[in-house]
Amino acid sequence: MCAFNLNMRRLVASPWNFPYLRLFQHGGKVYSRNIIMHDSKNLMQLEGEQRMVKRNASHATSNRTQIASKISIMGKLKFVIPLGIGVSLIAFFQWRHLRKSRHTSDGEVVQGPLNDFIVNCYCCLPLRITSRIWGWIANREVPISLRPGIYQCYAKLFNADLEEVAGDLSGFPTLVDFFVRPLKEEARPIAKNSNMVSPSDGTVLHFGPVTSCRVEQVKGMTYDLRHFLGDEDPKRSKERVTYTEEDNKTYVKSLLKNADNQLYQVTVYLAPGDYHRFHSPTDWEIKSRKHFQGKLLSVNPKIASFLPDLFSINERVVYIGEWSEGFMAYAAVGATNVGSIKIYCDKELTTNKIIWPKMKRWEDASLNCTHISKGQLFGEFRMGSTIVLLFEAPKDYQFCLNIGQTIKVGQALSHYVVQSDEKYEPKSL
């Protein structure tokens, strides 16, 4: 039949050389042209109808398959969606429970399993690389015509006060130069009714006496004082060392020059819009410096409120010395996007550079009892960060601060005035 159809199609398509009917013989029968044409058309129409039926059947089968697949997927989602929602709710309530109920040991806030996981994940982020990239961008020279507009937009975004800036905005070649902008002389008067003044502009995160090695970085979250100052035995630091409460109190007392005094701390956070230079809080002399490379995690109060040991994890520079009442430590803590920390009296200091070997924990340097006077310029951040003061003072020392308070350089931390015959002569920087 197929051969017959093919022959008929070829015959119909071939040219006819004669006007009269042409005969075609197949299987002993004779067909005329009209009969062949009629039968061919009928067969072609029949084949078309058959193809249409097959196509409709194919579409119907495909639709049934798709519908069955969708029903199968919906059947699976019927169990997957409630299961996913249930697991998410359990994780959320567990996270909220762990945040509310801190892990404690002898009344001190310590790190728990959830916090360990968060810290490890956060530390894996390439924050040092991004900080270097941001530092490189911030050090690119801005066209003079664009400087005022860019700096004004930045000031509006981060609430920086441009009226106290010394000089014209077009005089700052780069964004970094604007970050560490000098202020007018009368912009930051130094309080005379206190021996201890604010070292920087910023927000007071915490202040008060230090009675243990777990020191508050913000309310409800602490950092380890031994780790922060680097007073750990390198041989024992490879293993997790557990100190008793008595060990912690003994260590804090060992820092004091006068056993009748108390150790205090003040933590000030510098936001991106703040004045980024920091000053000396009192007349004192620096004996040594410890530079810890650490991480470059954000020190924003919202981050510090759930990341324990943040200050002792981050890169920091700690200057240790004495003031008229005894022990004093001045720490500049690095953070994300802080290109570098510059200390004017420490020319050898280099921060946010090549990663140290794993066994190297800090770099020591002696400053040969460098004398710094109250209110004197001490250093600068290349972005927002944190200053931590640890100092010894009498037990009746009273702060005139509030947590969350905005503070300026030179503002009194206390109205307590120490009477001392010893005078420190400032060293020119």
Tell me the layout of helices and strands.
Blueprint: H1 2-13, E1 24-26, E2 29-31, H2 33-100, E3 104-105, E4 108-109, H3 113-123, H4 127-138, H5 147-158, H6 175-179, E5 202-210, E6 214-218, E7 221-224, H7 225-229, H8 245-255, E8 261-269, E9 277-279, E10 284-292, H9 301-304, H10 310-313, E11 316-323, E12 326-333, E13 341-343, E14 363-372, E15 377-381, E16 386-394, E17 406-407
Antiparallel strand pairs: 1-2, 3-4, 5-8, 5-17, 6-7, 8-16, 9-15, 10-11, 10-14, 11-12, 12-16, 13-15
Helix pairs in contact: 1-2
Query: What is the total tally of β strands?
Result: 17
Number of helices: 10
In one word, what is the shape?
A: elongated
Q: Strands of the largest sheet, in order across it? A: 14-10-11-12-16-8-5-17
Secondary-structure-based class equals alpha+beta
The percentage helix is 25-40%
> Which regions are unreliable across 5 or more consecutive residues at pLDDT < 50?
1-31, 101-114, 421-429
Q: Summarize the biggest pleated sheet.
A: 8 strands, antiparallel
Q: How much strand content do the residues show? A: 15-25%
Could you spell the SSE succession in H and E letters?
HEEHEEHHHHEEEHHEEEHHEEEEEEE
As a whole number of angstroms, the C-alpha radius of gyration is 40 Å
Distance between the termini: 109 Å
Average predicted local confidence, pLDDT: 76
Enzyme class: lyase
Transmembrane segments: 77-95
Pathway: Phospholipid metabolism; phosphatidylethanolamine biosynthesis; Lipid metabolism
Keywords: Decarboxylase, Lipid biosynthesis, Lipid metabolism, Lyase, Membrane, Phospholipid biosynthesis, Phospholipid metabolism, Pyruvate, Transmembrane, Transmembrane helix
